[in-house]
Amino acid sequence: MTNFQYYFHELPCFNCTKTKVNTDLGWLTATMKEDVQAQLAAIIEQGNVEADLSVNVTCTKAEARDYLLLNFYGYSEEELEGQIEADDEKEVADEIAELLAENDALVFEHEVALQSCTNCDVE
Questions:
Q1: How many domains does the chain have?
Q2: pLDDT tens-digit readout, 5-62
Q3: If you write DSSP's letter for every residue of 68-95 in order, what string do you get?
Q4: 121 within some domain
């Protein structure tokens, strides 16, 4: 398994946009996390704060399998060690092969859902 961790980051409340709220970033490597945070900061700086923000995550071929299984198929870290359903393994391999046929890089759209704070007055 590559070095994936489940990350959180303080981002603005999607209601009041003032209060910072602990927000799930998902399963990422440290490098991916830094890139995601930079993209989110740029989006927020432009004032494009919506409930769901979309950023790009670039993976190496070695990272792509785990990234997809953890983030899109909902597997746990422990399940990556030999507990993957054959159909899921094939779908992931096919998607990676398709992307590599079209591009040199493996880039996935990664959604981050902003949370609402518990004390904002927005109804």
A1: 1
A2: 999 999 998 888 888 999 999 999 999 999 999 999 999 999 877 889 999 999 998 8
A3: HHHHTS---TGGGTT---HHHHHHHHHH
A4: no
